[in-house]
Amino acid sequence: MVEPLGAVAEIGLLRSSDARDCVEVVRSLPGWFSYPGALDDVASATSSQEGFCARVDGQLVGFVTVRLSFAESLEITYLAVHAMYRNKGIGSQLVRAVARLCKERSIELICLLTLGPTAGSSFYEETVAFYRASGFWRVRELQNAEWGGAYSLVMTALASRLLEAESGDGLT
Length: 172
Ligand SMILES: CC(C)(COP(=O)(O)OP(=O)(O)OC[C@H]1O[C@@H](n2cnc3c(N)ncnc32)[C@H](O)[C@@H]1OP(=O)(O)O)[C@@H](O)C(=O)NCCC(=O)NCCS
Hints:
- This protein is 35% helix and 33% strand.
- With 172 residues, it is α+β, with helices and mostly antiparallel strands.
- Helix 1 runs antiparallel to helix 3 (38-48) and helix 4 crosses helix 6.
- It is globular and about 40 Å long.
- It binds coenzyme A.
- Residues 29, 32, 79-81, 86-92, 114, 126-127, 129-130, 133-134 line the site of coenzyme A.
């Protein structure tokens, strides 16, 4: 059981042994992760892909997974913060960790797919609002065969822009 403490999260590298804790995080977010196979998909991604986790008092409360799309773009495949720890800045910390990874590896772009506006999910409206506030742009909505034909929204950000925000330069 996760207890909210309001403490600053420590960000570290995700290990394959964290997969079970990551599944518990998404289990707390049924509005986003109740589609068939969601928990198995998250278990698979978190045990095989690179990423970062956020811990509060040693307990995993959030994670992000990534994979290289092309030499110049890294895709965020999953990002989640436990329901009891949302809106405390932890998702932003995880996104900045991805941006720093891009900088280290000279990867310019961060991209992602999320459920698009046509799907009409109030949950995913919040997700898109978070990414936009973090410095991502909406690119295009498309019907995604891999998601059973659901509408997905392509979003992207310059990694350097996300780090400018970190250094206090602000987003335009
Ligand atoms: C999306 C998610 C990862 C964001 O993490 P978080 O820790 O809750 O977000 P943060 O506290 O870092 O928010 C950063 C900024 O995003 C914006 N934001 C966050 N949630 C928002 C919402 N529901 N509506 C509008 N803006 C929002 C705010 O501007 C916030 O800054 P502020 O606190 O200074 O106002 C998290 O809420 C989550 O796990 N959501 C459910 C699953 C999900 O959407 N995953 C991603 C796609 S699958």
